[in-house]
């Protein structure tokens, strides 16, 4: 948005403020005056030459005057909507829903809705004494019944007697509007008609379907992947919709103050879904979801600044996949619906809040049903809620809300997220996780305490990208003493929204917002710091700290040095549209696969091959997301995950440090781990990506998503030697033969390596006979005690071709684990497992994998 656009935005907001002020709408006037002042501030930063400072001062004074008026006026019960008004609104909403179903060709559903709408219109006609409202309802009832009769005539779905009895209640002189009927070639301009997909090639595997199905059950409730069919969800009902799980578990502070659960029409005069998206209007209450509320605040600020919708209407590039007929049959068989995917370059306009009007904008539903789309466990998922909200004994909301009294979106989006998380007794989160759930934007976590942290480079990166609209940011405090927190004006372990990032004459500053909408920073560059707020600085930031002293809305400036001292972690979420190419894999990793720790062996870790062929240097990001389905897991998060990157031509990796990792990931207890790969020019470059855990105790399901600026190939590294179970002596699995033996080195057989010439011959010997004439892929793995180094030798006894070697080894002797993958001609080979020194006793496992089914093994000694 350029300077002139920002100025026009401020003018429009100021005009709305004046209009509401003249009408006596105090809450709305305060809201728009605040927004106008904020818009003027942004215009000044962008270079506006208007006299913004005087206007900001004028608006600020008027805000204070209106606040005094508001404080003196008690909101009384007659402001809420009456029951008869609610019925009128529901009737109109149902007629609209019926029209949309009719236009979409869903005649059965449309007929039912028309009939129910007519019933409700008639009920409302009998209740109202307003002649103009009665006439409008009669017209709607007539239109609904006429259209129902037309559908009935073609589909034979309704009885004439029912229609005739209903028609007797309404005036039949009115004609239906011309757009109440649809023709076979009619198309609608609603968002529902736009949500179509393009066919592509890749389909989900059965494992991916199982992973997505498992991830649908979160805290005992099912949240299915969001599909195109969900855009046709029914929202209109003659009675208020009640979700059977709609009364959420409350936090302790909420329970102590609970007065009941109320709907918007019992709390507000004119409920609206969205009045004007603003970060300043969002208020956190008793729920410990500061990171989520901070995420809402910065999303709102982004929408306002860049005119791009993230929550009210977002541009989303979903993926390359689409459901085809065979795929759909497979899904039905597995009882797992899947999200429809679009072609990689197609953009999809969608809101996360439903229902919507024909412009794709979320709307208030007097029938009380809503659907929110959240990105959870690898895909976007549907969350259905009702509009019952917790209030105290005085009718004040106990959940987050908008300070604009009639606005609903904050409370409803929070309720949807809290429902998934198991209730308002939320264990706490961080903004990386919450923003990813809201927007699907790529999460990155930066500790401000890392020894390698480059404070200046990081700040400049954030500042540049922030003002280009490439990222959203929050910052969180760590643990601090009560006295220190009180002295600083900060809350321990608390998330703050980053609203602005500025540099003025070399001074680095952040503008932050406390989700509580009160309690601000008290140190350098705070509202009470007269020493640092020079006239030059106040003008550069269009900020008057004298006015700010009078009203604490939780928004403050803080210098970068102070932020680094008092804050622990900086969270960034990046716009995925920065990367035109993306794909993902959904997979599982069972606890039984491999050792608890992978400090010696990576042979059982999930591995992937990434091939990038750029013409110039580029970057590829890979996001590992662990799926979480239980509140306890979310709260404690004992699983430490990471992603290791090896530059070894995309081959499977068996040792953690041979070859050394190209990127050695840090294991963190977060569901998201982001890896950046700097790819040099002149490819192709082939990488091996290895999923890793610290002390693996439980099965995990995860999604691995690749984001790239250029074309790439991304595939699982198939393991032909995967062992399904431990058996002896032979396990046949398709065309792969797996052989595994558990033996031990005893005093008589622990001969040591070939350096121990006198005792080397005492070692156990196993003979492999690979039948056939071609080549065979051979994998030998030795697992032994970690107390001493071990390895093995392979002796070529005879082959049907020229001998590839007389003797080869597993390489350097290693503690705990040795492996060798080799291609050999079919024939007879002896394997000699041994320790480096003689008389090192203990058990060992010898695993042998062969790509030839006819492989036999025997112990020679």
UniProtKB/TrEMBL annotation:
UniProt xrefs under SMART domains: calpain_III, CysPc, MIT
UniProt KW keywords: Hydrolase, Protease, Thiol protease
Region annotation Disordered: where it falls in the sequence: 172-202
Active site per the UniProt annotation: 290, 494, 514
The keyword Transmembrane helix appears for this protein: no
Superkingdom as given in the UniProt entry: Eukaryota
Domain Calpain catalytic span(s) in chain numbering: 261-576
Family recorded in the similarity comment: Belongs to the peptidase C2 family.
PANTHER family cross-referenced by the UniProt entry: CALPAIN-7
Official protein name in the record: Calpain catalytic domain-containing protein
Organism of provenance: Ciona savignyi (Pacific transparent sea squirt)
High-level lineage: Eukaryota, Metazoa, Chordata, Tunicata, Ascidiacea
């Amino acid at each position: 948005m350029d300077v002139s656009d920002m100025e026009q935005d401020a003018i429009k907001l100021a005009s709305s403020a004046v209009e509401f002020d003249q009408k006596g709408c105090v809450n709305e006037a305060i809201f728009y005056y605040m927004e106008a002042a904020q818009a003027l501030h942004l215009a000044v930063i962008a270079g506006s030459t208007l006299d913004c400072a005087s206007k900001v001062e004028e608006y600020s004074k008027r805000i204070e005057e209106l606040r005094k008026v508001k404080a003196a006026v008690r909101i009384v019960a007659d402001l809420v909507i009456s029951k008869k008004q609610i019925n009128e609104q529901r009737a109109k909403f149902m007629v609209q829903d019926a029209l949309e179903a009719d236009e979409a060709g869903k005649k059965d559903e449309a007929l039912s809705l028309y009939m129910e709408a007519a019933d409700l219109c008639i009920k409302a006609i009998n209740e109202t004494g307003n002649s103009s409202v009665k006439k409008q309802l009669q017209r709607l009832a007539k239109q609904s019944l006429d259209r129902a009769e037309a559908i009935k005539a073609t589909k034979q779905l309704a009885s004439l007697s029912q229609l005739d009895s209903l028609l007797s209640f309404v005036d039949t002189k009115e004609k239906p509007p011309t757009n109440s009927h649809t023709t076979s070639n009619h198309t609608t301009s609603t968002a529902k008609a736009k949500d179509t997909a393009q066919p592509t090639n890749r389909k989900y595997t059965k494992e991916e379907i199982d992973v997505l199905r498992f991830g649908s059950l979160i805290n005992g409730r099912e949240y299915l992947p969001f599909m195109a069919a969900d855009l046709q969800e029914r929202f209109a009902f003659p009675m208020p919709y009640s979700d059977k799980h709609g009364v959420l578990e409350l936090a302790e502070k909420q329970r102590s103050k609970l007065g009941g659960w109320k709907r918007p029409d019992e709390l507000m005069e004119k409920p609206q879904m969205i009045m004007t998206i603003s970060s300043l209007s969002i208020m956190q209450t008793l729920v410990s979801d500061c990171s989520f509320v901070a995420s809402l605040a910065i999303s709102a600020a982004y929408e306002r600044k860049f005119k791009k919708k993230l929550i009210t209407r977002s541009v989303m590039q979903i993926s390359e996949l689409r459901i085809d007929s065979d795929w759909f049959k497979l899904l039905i068989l597995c009882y797992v619906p899947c999200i429809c995917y679009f072609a990689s370059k197609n953009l999809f306009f969608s809101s996360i809040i439903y229902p919507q009007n024909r412009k794709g904008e979320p709307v208030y539903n007097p029938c009380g049903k809503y659907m929110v789309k959240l990105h959870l466990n690898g895909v976007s998922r549907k969350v259905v809620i009702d509009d019952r909200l917790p209030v105290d004994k005085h009718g004040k909301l106990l959940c987050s809300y908008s300070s604009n009294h009639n606005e609903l979106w904050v409370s409803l989006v929070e309720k949807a997220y809290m429902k998934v998380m198991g209730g308002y007794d939320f264990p706490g989160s961080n903004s990386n996780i919450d923003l990813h759930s809201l927007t699907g934007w790529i999460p990155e976590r930066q500790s401000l305490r890392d020894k390698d942290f480059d404070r200046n480079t990081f700040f400049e990166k954030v500042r540049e990208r922030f003002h280009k609209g490439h990222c959203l940011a929050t910052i969180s405090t760590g643990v601090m003493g009560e006295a220190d927190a009180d002295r600083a004006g900060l809350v321990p372990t608390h998330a703050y929204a980053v609203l602005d990032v500025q540099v003025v004459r070399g001074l680095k500053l952040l503008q932050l917002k406390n989700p509580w909408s009160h309690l601000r920073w008290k140190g350098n560059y705070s509202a009470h710091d007269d020493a640092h707020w020079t006239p030059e600085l106040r003008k550069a930031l269009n900020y008057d700290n004298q006015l700010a002293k009078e009203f604490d809305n939780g928004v403050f400036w803080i210098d970068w040095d102070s932020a680094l001292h008092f804050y622990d972690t900086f969270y960034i979420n990046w716009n995925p549209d920065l990367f035109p190419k993306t794909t993902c894999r959904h997979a599982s990793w069972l606890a039984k696969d491999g050792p608890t720790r992978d400090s010696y062996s990576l042979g059982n870790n999930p591995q992937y091959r990434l091939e990038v062929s750029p013409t110039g240097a580029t970057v590829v990001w890979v996001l590992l997301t662990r799926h979480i389905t239980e509140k306890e897991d979310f709260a404690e998060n004992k699983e430490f995950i990471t992603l290791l990157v090896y530059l070894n031509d995309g081959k499977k990796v068996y040792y953690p440090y041979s070859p050394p990792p190209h990127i050695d990931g840090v294991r963190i207890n977060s569901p998201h781990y982001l890896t950046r790969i700097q790819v040099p020019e002149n490819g192709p470059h082939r990488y091996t990506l290895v999923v890793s855990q610290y002390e693996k105790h439980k099965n995990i399901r995860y999604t691995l998503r690749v984001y790239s600026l250029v074309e790439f190939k991304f595939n699982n590294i198939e393991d032909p030697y995967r062992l399904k179970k431990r058996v002896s002596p032979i396990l046949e699995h398709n065309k792969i033969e797996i052989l595994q033996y558990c033996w031990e080195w005893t005093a008589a057989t622990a001969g040591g390596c070939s350096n121990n010439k006198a005792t080397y011959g005492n070692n156990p010997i196993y003979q492999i006979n690979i039948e056939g004439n071609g080549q065979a892929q051979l994998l030998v793995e030795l697992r032994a005690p970690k107390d001493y180094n071990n390895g093995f030798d392979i002796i070529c006894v005879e082959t049907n071709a020229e001998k590839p070697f007389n003797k080869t080894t597993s390489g350097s002797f290693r503690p705990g684990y040795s492996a060798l993958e080799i291609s050999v001609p079919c024939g007879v080979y002896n394997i000699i497992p041994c320790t480096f020194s003689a008389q090192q006793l203990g058990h060992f496992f010898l695993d042998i994998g062969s790509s030839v089914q006819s492989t036999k093994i025997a112990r020679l000694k």
